[in-house]
Specification:
The chain is α+β, with helices and mostly antiparallel strands and about 210 residues long. The protein has helices at about 5-15, 30-40, 65-75, 135-140, 155-160, 170-175, 180-190, and strands at about 20-25, 45-50, 80, 85-90, 95-100, 110, 120-125, 125-130, 195-200, 205-210.
Length: about 210
């Protein structure tokens, strides 16, 4: 047993699951692992501790097949392929794998779900949440030159007038009378310029003026 390995692992476990850390008891479901990789890559990055129970107990990675599943989750089930590193630690006779996922430079990163659909996730607290389409467009826009602020034309005025309080995307579409796709694009651009902010309340993404 490596004393330094155990000390390091226990220091991570004491933090619990949070915005940038998740525990996985087993690496036998590539879709679930890919979901967490996508969420970390699309948000603030994070660590996935594989071989740790939810209560922090060291259960270990038991077979080479599990290690294969981890690599599948990162490199086959996620698109575009995220950057990810795997480090192995040993404590109490158990092998623990720490997968470190930085924020992706090519967002959004999608993960293949159990029904064969590609979905993008974000990390909110200790949960992986399917990303709002507004956030997906905002992430794509963020990789382009910023450009000039949006001109305040009639469309923008209608959108801003509709945004009284904290509203869901569907509420904004209904109140503004604008096409859904147009609202998504405009909200994404306003997010980028800081005119609008988002929050996740009651299992819903909501948008309001900053």
């Amino acid at each position: 047993m490596k004393t330094d390995d155990k000390r390091y692992l226990l220091s991570l476990i004491r933090q619990g699951e949070h915005q940038q850390q998740d525990f996985k008891y087993r690496a036998n479901d590539a879709c679930k692992l890919a979901k967490t990789v996508s969420a970390f890559a699309n948000t603030d990055g994070g660590r996935l501790l594989i071989g740790i129970r939810d209560d922090g107990h060291l259960s270990g990675v038991r077979s080479e097949e599990e290690i294969y599943v981890m690599h599948q989750a990162a490199y086959k089930y996620c698109k575009p392929e995220p950057s990810i590193s795997f480090d192995t630690y040993h404590a109490d006779g158990q092998t623990i794998v720490v997968a470190t996922v930085p924020t992706s430079a090519r967002r959004p990163v999608y993960a293949l779900d159990e029904e064969g659909r590609m979905r993008a996730y974000v990390r909110i607290g200790d949960e992986n949440i399917i990303a709002s389409p507004v956030l997906l467009v905002s992430q794509r826009e963020s990789q382009k030159p910023r450009g000039a602020m949006i001109a305040c034309d009639e469309t923008i005025r209608r959108l801003l007038q509709a945004m009284q309080g904290s509203l869901t995307l569907n509420q904004i579409v209904r109140l503004s009378g604008l096409p859904r796709r147009r609202v998504i694009v405009l909200l994404a651009r306003l997010l980028r310029f800081g005119t609008v902010r988002w929050e996740y309340v009651g299992q819903q993404f909501r948008f309001c003026l900053s």
